[in-house]
Design a protein that fits this description.
By secondary structure, the chain is α+β, with helices and mostly antiparallel strands. Helix content is about 45%, strand content about 25%. It has 8 helices and 11 strands.
Length: about 325
């Protein structure tokens, strides 16, 4: 029913645009010069709205319309990498806020000296997964390290993972005997209740080796529910990747299911630039990108992948 409601809303948008175009054409046919300015404004508005709706056609995946779960893991680079992971967390929270999405920090593991070792957030809103999935991969930062006494240039890496936040009514079969449940004391801020009780939950899916931990809720039951949500999302993502790999193999394409190489570089020294290595899209306004202005990179990647699919057909 949610899918049907979403499709009806989209169809109504296109129908309303078609009616506005028809009304504009009828007014233009009158030949009244006093309407020229109004028609020009309406034409520009229609073009903008059609471009936006047309762009949504790039998001045609099974889960693109739905919510997302985004995880960040510090990679090579020690304390700098952990600081870089926290910078990315801030970037994605700001990007989601600018898009009007609702976010929730589901898990956050602080670093020893600074930053975070890992974090996981849920992003809720229309097309959240379709947009967020474009960020999946390794992100590289080059800068003068604030943690190096000699202030030398360091390169740090962080991995971003994105999964669809699957609706509860989508069936995912998980044998309870395949799950190992561990509880432990939460390490994040949360008051005395969280510090004195084993509220944090770690689920290990034995067949796949997937480990999911959640500790940001106040009760063990809530953390377990959140962890199970993430586990379901990751298992469905694995099945989707297997399906895509099989299709690619039939086409003769190679699919790398590993971590892969960096998808984007953020350079703060000796010059300033953010460059996406998949699309070659780049900008010199690094601070804007770190403040969450990712739309140009997201759009460039979606149009890039659409071009690949079109050429493949």
């Amino acid at each position: 029913m949610r899918r049907l409601s979403s499709l009806r809303e989209e169809a109504a948008l296109w129908a309303a645009l078609a009616q506005r175009v028809q009304d504009g054409l009828e007014l233009a046919a009158l030949g009244d010069l006093s309407l020229v300015e109004d028609l020009s404004v309406e034409t520009e508005a229609l073009e903008e709205e059609v471009d936006q709706l047309e762009f949504h056609l790039l998001l045609s995946g099974a889960h693109d319309r739905g919510d997302a779960i985004l995880a960040i893991h510090a990679g090579a680079g020690g304390t700098d990498a952990q600081d870089w992971a926290e910078m990315l967390l801030r970037t994605y929270l700001r990007w989601a806020e600018a898009c009007g999405y609702k976010t929730e920090v589901m898990d956050r593991l602080p670093g020893e000296e600074a930053g975070i070792k890992s974090a996981m957030i849920s992003i809720s809103g229309s097309y959240a997964y379709g947009y967020a999935r474009t960020e999946r991969g390794v992100h590289r930062l080059v800068r003068l390290s604030p943690f190096d006494a000699a202030h030398r240039r360091h390169t740090s890496f962080a991995l971003v993972e994105v999964w669809p936040d699957i609706d509860e009514d989508i069936s995912v079969t998980i044998d309870p005997n395949d799950i190992q449940v561990d509880t432990f004391r939460a390490s994040s801020a949360g008051g005395q209740h969280m510090q004195k009780n084993d509220t944090a939950v770690r689920l290990t899916h034995i067949p796949s080796g997937i480990v999911v931990a959640c500790q940001n809720e106040r009760s063990q039951a809530q953390n377990r529910e959140s962890a199970m949500r993430v586990l379901k999302a990751r298992l469905i993502q694995i099945e989707e990747e297997k399906r895509l790999a099989e299709i690619a193999e039939l086409k003769g394409d190679h699919v790398d299911a590993g971590w892969g190489n960096q998808i984007r570089s953020y350079v703060l020294h000796p010059y300033q630039m953010v460059k996406d290595h998949r699309t070659d899209h780049e900008t010199g306004n690094v601070q804007a990108v770190l403040d969450g202005r990712l739309d140009d990179f997201v759009e460039a990647y979606l149009r890039f992948t659409m071009g690949i699919r079109a050429s493949g057909n």
